[in-house]
Design brief:
Helices cover 36% and strands 15% of the residues. Strand 9, helix 8 and strand 10 form a beta-alpha-beta unit. The model has no long low-confidence stretch (mean pLDDT 98). The structure holds N-acetyl-L-norvaline (AN0) and phosphoric acid mono(formamide)ester.
Length: 317
């Protein structure tokens, strides 16, 4: 594997989940693979889980790992070509990327949507520059339009907890005070559309996601109807995608918060969220603390999804 930016990079998804579950049984079995190999993780945005789980995955594989926080201690980077650099940015990304590439064997990049220019975001301008100019295999640690390590961990978790061959999985929008990217719901939809599940997306009008990710999934605007009979409830906030409201908050309607009453509509569903989560905005205390909440197990599987991806990259070096 040379790049990991979306579900297609995993090829056969069932085989990838199987490989992940094998790795989970003995996560130190491949320690030799990463000997004298270096993983560089570059963060343009904050992180708790991705930073720790991906570093742990690299260490499980015997790699040396380095982390660079672009906004804390590194030079401010210019990302546009042709700009006269007389402002506050000291270095151009076109030098910074190949320099970073020269110190490592594999690079992970976190670069969220900036909500300044929809085209720049949806063309994955920053991630693609790493792919093009680093000379090294690159994986997304949440880029502008996707979070494929999260969605892979989510699928592994569903595989572990499902009680029927084809569970009903509902992705529900929920309110949040700040505008959040569509990366997590995009990738979740991308994976669920490829997985053997009955997949439904529910959100208020105006929150339609890019059809490239929604594909044939069922979209139900009535959250109660969508939740009926669900086996998994996956909550997430995102800001509007559709023009002219790209990046805007259209609703903070707390009737969309996942509460005990909402969960009562489901088939005793498991509750999932990628975290970090704002309690009593996205989900009530009761639901996230209930035995049906598998958010911690889901987060723990981030180590496994990252390890599967990095292992495949190491095998291909
Ligand atoms: C980010 C997002 O919604 O994309 C990261 C989630 C993994 N969340 C926040 O910024 C709160
Ligand atoms: N779920 C997730 O990616 O969390 P962090 O933003 O803390 O890495």
């Amino acid at each position: 594997m040379r790049t990991y930016t979306n579900v297609k990079d995993l090829d056969d998804l069932n085989a990838a989940v199987k490989e992940a579950l094998e790795i989970k049984k003995n996560r130190y079995a491949y320690k030799h693979l990463g000997e004298n190999r270096t993983l560089l993780m570059v963060f343009f945005n904050s992180s708790l889980r991705t930073r720790l789980s991906t570093q742990k995955a690299g260490m499980n594989l015997g790699m040396n790992t380095m982390v660079l926080d672009i906004n804390q201690g590194a030079w401010k980077l210019e990302t546009e070509r042709g700009v006269i650099m007389d402002g506050d940015k000291s270095e151009h990304i076109l030098e910074a990327i190949p320099v970073m590439g020269s110190y490592c064997d594999i690079i992970g990049v976190r670069a969220f949507a900036q909500f300044e220019n929809k085209e720049d975001d949806y063309q994955e301008k920053i991630l693609n520059q790493f792919i093009r100019y680093s000379g090294k295999p690159v994986f997304s640690m949440e880029a502008a339009t996707g979070h494929p390590l999260q969605a892979f961990a989510d699928l592994i978790t569903i595989e572990e907890y499902k009680k029927s061959a084809r569970p009903k999985v509902v992705l529900t929008w929920a309110p949040h005070p700040k505008a959040l990217p569509q990366a997590v719901p995009n990738s979740f939809a991308d994976f669920m559309n490829e997985a053997d599940v009955d997949f439904v997306i529910t959100h208020p009008e105006g929150y339609e996601l890019d059809s490239k990710f929604v594909r044939g999934a069922k979209v139900e605007y009535n959250q109660d109807k969508a939740l009926a009979g669900a086996d998994f409830v996956y909550a997430k906030n995102w800001a509007a995608y559709a023009d002219p409201n790209y990046g805007k908050i259209l609703s903070k309607d707390t009737s969309w918060t996942v509460t005990t009453g909402k969960m009562a509509l489901t088939n005793n569903a498991y509750f999932m969220h990628c975290l970090p989560v704002r309690r009593n905005m996205i989900v009530s205390d009761d639901v996230i603390e209930s035995p049906q909440s598998i958010v911690i197990q889901e987060a723990a599987n981030r180590e496994i999804s990252a390890q599967t991806v990095i292992k495949r990259m190491l095998e291909n070096l």
